Amino acid sequence: VNTTIINQLCINTATFGWNRSLIDALNALANSGVKHITPWRHQIQHVGPEIANAMIRDAGLSVSALCRGGMFTYEDKKSYTLAIDDNLRAIDEAAIIGAKSLTLVVGGLPSNSKNLKHAHEQITSGIAKILPHARQAGITLAIEPLHPMFAADRSCINSLTHANDLCDLLGEGVGIALDVYHVWWDPRLSEEIIRAGEKRIVGFHICDWLVPTSDLLLDRGMMGDGVIDIPAIRVMLEKVGYTGLHEVEIFSEKNWWQRSPKEILQHSIERHHTHV
Amino acid sequence: VNTTIINQLCINTATFGWNRSLIDALNALANSGVKHITPWRHQIQHVGPEIANAMIRDAGLSVSALCRGGMFTYEDKKSYTLAIDDNLRAIDEAAIIGAKSLTLVVGGLPSNSKNLKHAHEQITSGIAKILPHARQAGITLAIEPLHPMFAADRSCINSLTHANDLCDLLGEGVGIALDVYHVWWDPRLSEEIIRAGEKRIVGFHICDWLVPTSDLLLDRGMMGDGVIDIPAIRVMLEKVGYTGLHEVEIFSEKNWWQRSPKEILQHSIERHHTHV
Hints:
Chain A is α/β, with parallel strands linked by helices. Chain A is built from 11 helices and 9 strands. In chain A, strands 3-2-1-9-8-7-6-5-4 form a 9-stranded parallel sheet. Chain A binds chain B through residues 109, 113-116, 120, 147-149, 151-153, 156, 158, 162, 184-187, 209, 211-213, 216, 226-229, 232, and chain B through 109, 113-116, 120, 147-149, 151-153, 156, 158, 162, 184-187, 209, 211-213, 216, 226-229, 232.
């Protein structure tokens, strides 16, 4: 395995399956050559962030991001306030485990609402509310634009254009996690990557779009098994100076999640080498 | 039933199910008060366009659009040429049945290609090639931007912005069919409707986005059962002067297609009245 290439590889632990623990992920990564991990909050909370941090350091790994904060969209004030509080805790957890950023999946339409504009406003003010705390903690808030098919139930920030608009508005301390799965179709992708620039892009997530796709959420492909020109997007990023990590994040209920973490990791390493 | 309202209603025959014939659709529509139909090509070809035209006139209906042309994206020249020829025939069929427009689903990535830009070029030159014939026949070519989740396999024109760009480029005789299902999530929707203007919008398709959505293609909802603010989009269109039809187009394998055309139609009429 090419050492220079594997040094850029990061594994988002969801790639091993929703139900895997942090220890499952660390066991899989042991002696693999992969040096970077993005864990999910439930895994960190399960052992507590201080112990999680020690476990990750003992494994010789560094944390890229914590996955995830966000979900700011609620019709009732109480839920909205709870969401803000929860995001403040997520920032603390991210800081304790040494993450550089907190990935934000910002929320879709609140239940019983059809008002996209109001959801957008809640998202903007939600991020603005947690931003001072994030700046103080040294954690970048990484808005992840999600594919438009998630506008109703996960995120109504659905393009890099919209994420850039938000970054312009919110200023220092807000960045973007760019996942090829969500943005590959967008004819504005190249110019919006230039607009974002190296400083704003804090994550590059990789997987592939399968044809056919059998499930909106849980049928992502391994790099090379789908139609996304991942190297072309990598080159767009490198042209603006991006030298950060390549984070494998694959939700695949019927295929990859049926395999062992070791096997999934082996394929991720190989495909990262050949198809990114 | 409010006569003024039902006069704007049009039924896309796919709403009754893929396997229904033209006669099934006409039987359902008989004495319903609905005056407009958008049939699919296979239904027209099954009886031949001249007979189809006579059948539709005898039923007292007028044809809005023929569904569909497009699918211009192929890696090999021969398939591309065949696609152009087939679109020329579709224009002829549309003219024979008295359609005002031919709905274009333009095609996604060709098999074994990851080159979106090349697909976009094929689409542009494909429409340009059939445009003189369409102008002569008096048939507007209605580009239908499809939801980004269809970029790989059906259409890589995935926003009203992109469709407007193409219309700017191609000029007279090219319009847009706007389906709420494909565009509701887009924060640019309102300004791009203004940019399109009344003249360019030749179709307004209605259905709803269900939460959750169980299938990318065949799980559309009846108006009112999902999260799309359809009246808000109708108002955007009316503000630029749109007075055209409201075309119900619902692909629903597990719900509506399990019911009789009469029952589907009854619900479509009611929901059009209450939720559009």
